[in-house]
Amino acid sequence: MTPRRPVLPSALRATLTGLALAALALAVFGPLTNMLLWAFAETWYFPAKLPQSYGFAFWERVFRPQGNAMISLGNSLVIAVLTVVVSLLVAVPAGLALARGRLPGRALFLFLFLLPQAFPAIAVQMNVARIFYSLGLNGTFPGVVLVHAIQGLVFSVWISAAAFAAVDPALEEAAANMGAPRFTVFRTVTLPLALPGLIASAIFVFLISLDEFTGTFFVGVPDVTTLPLLLYSAALEGNYQIASITALILLVPSVVFMLVIQRFLKADVLARIG
Amino acid sequence: MFGRKASLLLITPALTMMAVLFLFPLASSLASAFWQDAEARWGMGNFWRAWQFYSADILFSLVIVVLATALVAVLAVAIAGYLTLGESRLFVALLGWLYRWPLFIPFVVAAQLMRTFLAKNGMMNTALVELGLLTPFTTQSFLDWRGIVITFVWKQTPFVALLLAGAMAALDRATIEAARNLGAKRLRLLLDVVVPQVMPSLASGLILSFVTMMSVLSVPMMINAENPTMLTVDMAWRINAYGDYGMANALGLIAYAMTGLVAWGYLRQGLKEKSA
């Protein structure tokens, strides 16, 4: 091996890398810190660098039982749970058929479910809203749930297909050979083994629904307000505290999900994408 | 486990949902774009009007999304490259922990973070003043096209970097070691040996980001809804203010066309390389 002569002395190089990392840390955490400060600031007037006083006065306003925020939070949670139920009801059978069935043109079906990712969703969603309007679904919970479910469908179908495909068919055959009826095999062997994947897809769909903005903007307004829409209107009204508190409520599940999923995002899994 | 009939039966609900909630609205967006309501006939009228009203916004959207995609590419290659080739274990671990934070943060939240951070009296300017790089009188708000680009890059870089780091980690280390033994510098190694091998992952990550950024409504609405703005804001405006679905769908079709061109360019490039 030929010895390499570094261009820069190693101490200088380490300093430069350290500085680059520090800059990245500032870029990542700066906006988050700024939002946290606003969430707890009671008064913060220009040109003060930091809030003049901190407190929970705005939190009390947000969490007042009859306040807008509690209603939006309730709406968001109900819609997200219903979205998960709808997508699982549709995606589990589809995943089963894709993984275990004899489907003509299986690749074509998988591709079809991927299609919504290839189009800017907004242009489809505004037409969904137009169709829902004629059906009386605009401004209703079922309407919003459906527009969220279609966004989650790609992920729920693909993840459940992968989860069922990962179950060893030999185990199912063993159970069947012992005389178990087909549904019993599914209930006692296939489903429990695929459950972690199905739960992962449920969590992911929940998060998609919780964070969804554009579809709700077209379909839900003005009768169904979710947290992202509340955040949007608070921001446009210039109410930094309410907007930041709402942002914080939405941020926590996203960051927790990122930290939990870290274990699953291993290199060998990701290498297969793309 | 299931026969043909049973399989088709099982997949029918999902297919029905796709047809009703995606394919049908998609088809109706195409039809509506070419239907001229005023004259009650088919034609290109909506596109002419869209170009007259919004040509600046069409170019603005394209420039912003292309610029943001380019910046995401550079940053993601740098991050994934350091994670793969970095020699300091401490720095690699720190970077791996650091870069993922914005990954699942929703766009609407990212937009709100940036509204406070990039404002004239936001933390970025305060920090620059503290460092002596600016004075309180020379600070300016970044809540314009730059704010949109910064928000997009902040939000999308972790996603592409994650895909890339995964692909790079799965590479055969032998090629890297061979190049390293031949005396290749790390930057050469990254650009000439590693990146070409993970091009499919990089391209699909960038195309997905491009499509996503083309359809985000909250970020341009919250950061810069002044003129010129992005097509998504115009679409929402045409519908909410005028009920003008024809022009909104013409704009939507222009957005499809831009993302379609990017995807087509990528596929063609891939085919060329395969046939070469």
TrEMBL record, chain A:
PANTHER family registered for this protein in UniProt: INNER MEMBRANE ABC TRANSPORTER PERMEASE PROTEIN YDCV
Any one GO CC term of the record: plasma membrane
Keyword NAD: no
Lineage: Bacteria, Pseudomonadati, Pseudomonadota, Alphaproteobacteria, Rhodobacterales
Pfam family, one: BPD_transp_1
Family of this protein: Belongs to the binding-protein-dependent transport system permease family.
SUPFAM superfamilies xref list: MetI-like
Name assigned to this protein: ABC-type spermidine/putrescine transport system permease subunit II
Presence of keyword Oxidoreductase: no
Automatic annotation (TrEMBL), chain B:
Annotated transmembrane regions: 57-83, 90-114, 148-171, 245-267
Subcellular locations according to the entry: Cell membrane
Membrane topology: Multi-pass membrane protein
UniProt keyword terms in alphabetical order: Cell membrane, Membrane, Transmembrane, Transmembrane helix, Transport
A GO-annotated cellular component: plasma membrane
Biological process annotations from GO: transmembrane transport
Organism domain of life: Bacteria
UniProt keyword Disulfide bond present: no
Statement: the UniProt record of this protein carries the keyword Zinc: no
Domain ABC transmembrane type-1: 58-266
Protein family according to the UniProt entry: Belongs to the binding-protein-dependent transport system permease family. CysTW subfamily.
Entry protein name: ABC-type spermidine/putrescine transport system permease subunit I
Organism expressing this protein natively: Rhodobacter maris
